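Weekly sync, protein design subgroup
Attendees: M.S., D.O., the rotation student, P.L. (late)

Item 1: inverse folding check
M.S. brought a backbone from last month's batch and wanted to see whether the design step gives back something sensible before we order anything. D.O. pointed out we never logged the input encoding, so this time it goes straight into the notes. Structure tokens as presented (489 positions):
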């Protein structure tokens, strides 16, 4: 059995922080910039527990080598996800005190509706408890058995809802997205030839919509360009096919368009977000990311008839159409967070922190997905653990080793997340076998990022001591959340 204690020492625990100087931030895709600091000041702190390597090994064994099954109190720096883990602003907390908890017609719903319309430009709002509630409704409304849904790479919950409704997801993302070493700036782009081939093969009537995400999570937080989106809109309009927008991180995508795409440097994040949304017919939103809240989401639509059906369905599955499973205070915090999300200074610092961590790992020679994406740094587990075959879950093993080393919690994005083919029951074998270091918004400092980088580099240097895992428990759906593993001897 692998001795995971060999990866660790107590250095990070004795000296978890060290003075650092803000310096110019350099990336392969962006110009050198002057020093920056977080555009906020800290009013409250949450104390975190420090643990020893032996305590972390024991916690990981109890969790079945699945970072999702760790207790939060045993985690030092939590980079599991950016979903619902951001820090709310003073304005959002003040808004929480203005919650109208009426069962019907809460004023907070109308504030949220106005914020959505003004920021994103969609006409109609259906609130849901979180993004997957919106995915469930749109899938049941639009997908019938035998349909195919093209998209720019799958996402776990999105694809599952599409499959449960009788559809089959078809990946039409550009080839560069599957190559972690590629420096292509818009790996989220849809390959128009692939999309047209799907349309010609199945016919437009069997395609309820194109599933388009901004940014693409499973590719490493990679953006789609405005040019590509315009071309996709032109092609789908020709065949009378909808585009349903997974807009979870649309403001982050807009930031990359401003920074990377010719002709957009002088545009505001807010105006770019509106333009992105204008090329789509509706959207599912997990507000737990861009919109800076701990819970909440919505379905946004432009078609009245489809909205009417969705408004009826939300009453069945989520709650009345003016609360959708949310408290009034949550809707108020969301409406404020939506507006804060398109502020340039906020987004500059948010993505700047991700780039900072990514650059430190690149400088140390750690294989990661290039270019650095929007919401996290993605370690290339297949390149780091070349001696571990994909059937032995290298990304899962790497995430476990990182936690035991320092208490940093990350998550697997590889064969475990990819799951099994709904028809054959065989494992999907994605080309990308990744560990995601996901950065919550407005939570950690650059010093935390230094500790994370030091731990990743330490594990990377000792990578040959890491063995693979075997799965000893597998749930029926979305196995990465609850599966359990044991180290291979």
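Designed sequence read out in the meeting:
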């Amino acid at each position: 059995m692998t001795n995971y204690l060999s990866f660790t020492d107590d250095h990070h625990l004795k000296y978890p922080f060290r003075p650092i100087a803000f310096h110019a931030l350099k990336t392969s895709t962006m110009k050198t910039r002057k020093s920056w600091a977080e555009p906020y000041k800290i009013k409250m702190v949450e104390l975190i527990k420090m643990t020893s390597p032996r305590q972390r090994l024991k916690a990981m064994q109890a969790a079945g080598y699945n970072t999702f099954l760790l207790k939060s109190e045993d985690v030092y720096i939590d980079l599991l996800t950016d979903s619902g883990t951001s820090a709310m602003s003073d304005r959002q907390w003040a808004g929480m005190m203005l919650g109208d908890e009426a069962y019907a017609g809460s004023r907070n719903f109308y504030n949220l509706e106005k914020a959505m319309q003004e920021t994103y430009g969609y006409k109609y709002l259906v609130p849901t408890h979180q993004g997957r509630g919106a995915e469930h409704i749109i899938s049941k409304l639009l997908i019938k058995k035998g349909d195919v849904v093209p998209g720019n790479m799958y996402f776990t919950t999105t694809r599952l809802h599409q499959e449960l409704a009788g559809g089959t997801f078809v990946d039409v993302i550009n080839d560069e997205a599957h190559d972690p070493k590629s420096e292509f700036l818009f790996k989220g782009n849809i390959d128009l030839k692939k999309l047209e081939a799907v349309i010609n093969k199945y016919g437009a009537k069997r395609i309820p919509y194109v599933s388009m995400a901004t940014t693409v999570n499973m590719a490493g937080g990679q953006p789609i360009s405005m040019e590509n989106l315009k071309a996709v809109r032109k092609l789908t309009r020709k065949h009378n096919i909808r585009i349903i927008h997974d807009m979870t991180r649309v403001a982050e995508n807009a930031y990359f368009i401003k920074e990377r795409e010719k002709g957009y440097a002088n545009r505001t994040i807010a105006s770019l977000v509106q333009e992105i949304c204008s090329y789509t017919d509706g959207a599912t939103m997990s507000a737990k990311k861009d919109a800076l809240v701990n819970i909440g989401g919505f379905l946004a639509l432009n078609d009245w008839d489809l909205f009417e059906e969705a408004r009826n369905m939300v009453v069945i599955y989520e709650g009345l159409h003016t609360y959708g499973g949310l408290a009034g205070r949550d809707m108020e915090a969301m409406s404020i967070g939506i507006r804060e999300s398109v502020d340039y200074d906020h987004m500059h610092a948010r993505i700047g922190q991700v780039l900072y961590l990514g650059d430190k790992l690149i400088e140390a020679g750690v294989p990661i997905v290039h270019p650095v994406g929007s919401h996290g740094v993605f370690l290339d587990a297949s390149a780091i653990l070349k001696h571990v075959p994909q059937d032995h879950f290298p990304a899962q093993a790497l995430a476990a080793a990182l936690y035991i080393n320092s208490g940093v919690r990350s998550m697997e994005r590889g064969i475990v997340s990819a799951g099994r083919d709904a028809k054959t029951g065989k494992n999907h074998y994605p080309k990308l076998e990744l560990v995601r270091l996901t950065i919550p918004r407005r939570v950690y400092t650059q010093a935390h990022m230094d500790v994370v980088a030091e731990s990743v580099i330490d594990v990377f240097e000792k990578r040959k001591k890491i063995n693979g895992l075997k799965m000893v428990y597998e749930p029926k759906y979305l196995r990465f959340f609850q599966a359990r593993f044991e180290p291979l001897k």
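Discussion: The chain is about 40% helix and 10% strand. Residues 344-363 form the longest helix (20 residues).
Action: P.L. to compare against the previous round before Friday.
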